[in-house]
Design brief:
Length: 472
């Protein structure tokens, strides 16, 4: 009877030949570089744009395809297939944003001789994971004259980093008795950005002022903050007021790394969901002679509910598809084109955690190394807020993947009464097209050091490529 039972297939076993292992390793090495370089939605979209240009794609739309980006944070790309658009396109979505700490608009404070920047966290993070570790600052400062100052501090070997200090155990008795939810306050997530006070310029002659203001000859009321402002001015030619129109993000400092003696895992920040951005783009560029037009949509703001002009609930995607239809097949109706299309909502899944197995229902959990996980539905407790993919669509996908012996698994997130989470699938489902969530499973999702399996990275690329190359 064994041949009647179903067991998921290990991606390590599926890709065991020396050639495949070599391809797997090469992909992982490029992925580690990508992850180390792209720590914000803007950096991710800029990287994707460079890669698209390098492959011959141009902004806008020509007969073969093109791409459009929005506010540097979201991006749509299309590669024209052999069949007409009215027969539907194949779309993969992913998101460019990750949980982090954003600087407040008036961030700079000085307390007891320490200069700090106040933050407002973005997305679902566990506050304590951000304490006592090296942090970097990435982002932009927009000036009134239209200039944009790009900021990246804390990534180069000789760069200083920032940090949020944690309470010493000697004084943490009361805090230790609190619940995790109560023990860490958002208003204490202040990053340390300086300590040396600015000396009032002694005997400074008029016209030789250090910050261009006369009061620089007076001892500053907040000398550490004054020093920080001076350094920011020297390096970026900005003043405190310019931070009102800045987006500065505090992220873990340093590169992504291979983890384990066998280097079989990738550890790094922002793999939710940049692992799907990376693999979906690779699939898009490497798909061989696709029948149906291939589209990518990379959205921002997924981690805070997909609102905002660059999020999945905005009209950006729809505008792009309408422009594409107008250019290539003006006679086709938007509605029928969308209804004929098929999508993968590429987002990461929670892997069965070796130390917290009791939180998962094991038979329906994602195993590291068994290929990307499909989720028929996301949502929580009674499938609320779920896109519930149709069985006919899942069956078609099974056929596509079986024909290439690509390893994959079907999973849901945690035990029914414990788990929950959403993706952008429902925003695509709103158009009536077929869509299902699929992406590699991570350990430590939303942490500053998420883990992915090198085998799952490789298998995810195979799944996305098979989808783009599939006929009907
Ligand atoms: Mn995600
Ligand atoms: Mn997430």
């Amino acid at each position: 009877m064994n041949e009647l039972a179903y067991n998921p297939q290990s991606a390590w076993k599926a890709y065991a030949s020396p050639e495949e292992r070599q391809a797997m390793r090469a992909l992982a090495e490029r992925y580690v570089d990508f992850l180390s370089e792209c720590k914000t939605e803007r950096e991710t979209v800029a990287w994707v744009e460079r890669r698209l240009r390098g492959a011959g794609f141009a902004p806008g739309l020509d007969e073969r395809g093109g791409f459009t980006q929005l506010h540097g944070k979201a991006l749509f790309a299309v590669r024209r297939g052999r069949r007409s658009l009215s027969e539907g396109f194949h779309l993969i979505s992913a998101h460019t944003d990750s949980p982090r700490l954003d600087l407040k608009q008036r961030p700079l404070i000085e307390q007891v001789g320490v200069g700090q920047a106040k933050t407002h966290y973005y997305g679902g993070l566990r506050k304590y994971q951000w304490l006592a570790r090296p942090l970097a600052l990435h982002g932009v400062v927009a000036l009134q004259n239209g200039d944009i100052r790009s900021v990246v501090i804390g990534e180069k070997q000789n760069d200083p980093v920032f940090t949020i200090e944690d309470l010493l155990p000697h004084l943490a008795k009361k805090q230790s008795e609190k619940t995790v939810a109560d023990a860490f306050e958002a208003e204490k997530l202040n990053i340390i950005i300086g300590h040396e006070p600015l000396e009032a310029a002694p005997e400074d002659k008029a016209g030789n002022a250090r910050t261009g203001a006369d009061e620089s000859r007076e001892p500053a009321k907040e000398p550490v903050k004054a020093h920080i402002l001076k350094l920011l001015h020297e390096r970026f030619a900005i003043r405190e007021e310019d931070l009102l129109s800045a987006e500065l993000q505090v992220v873990p400092a340093g590169p992504a790394r291979f983890v384990g003696l066998d280097s079989a895992l990738v550890g790094g920040y922002g793999q939710d969901d940049r692992i799907c951005v990376f693999t979906a783009l690779e699939a898009f560029l490497s798909a061989a002679d696709p029948e149906h037009s291939c589209c990518l949509i990379f959205w921002d703001k997924e981690e805070i509910g997909s609102d905002g002009s660059t999020g999945a609930s905005s009209r950006f995607f729809e505008y792009c598809v309408r422009d594409m239809a107008e250019a290539w097949e003006p006679e086709s109706s938007f509605g029928s084109l969308m209804l004929a299309s098929r999508a993968l909502s590429a987002d990461v899944h929670a892997a069965l955690d070796p130390d917290w197995q009791e939180l998962h229902e094991k038979q329906n959990s994602a195993l590291m190394g068994y290929g990307p996980s499909f989720s028929k539905f996301t949502g929580s407790r009674g499938k609320y807020g779920a896109n519930d993919a149709h069985p006919e669509y899942i069956a078609w996908l099974r056929g596509v993947l079986a024909a290439r012996a690509v390893p994959w698994q079907m999973a849901e997130l945690g035990k029914v009464d414990l788990g929950g989470g959403g993706t952008v699938a429902l925003f695509l489902a709103a158009y009536g097209l077929d869509v299902i969530d699929v992406g590699p499973a991570l350990l430590g999702m939303h942490s500053p050091f998420e883990l992915a399996s090198v085998a799952d990275l490789y298998a995810s690329l195979q799944v996305y490529r098979a989808f783009f190359e599939a006929g009907r």
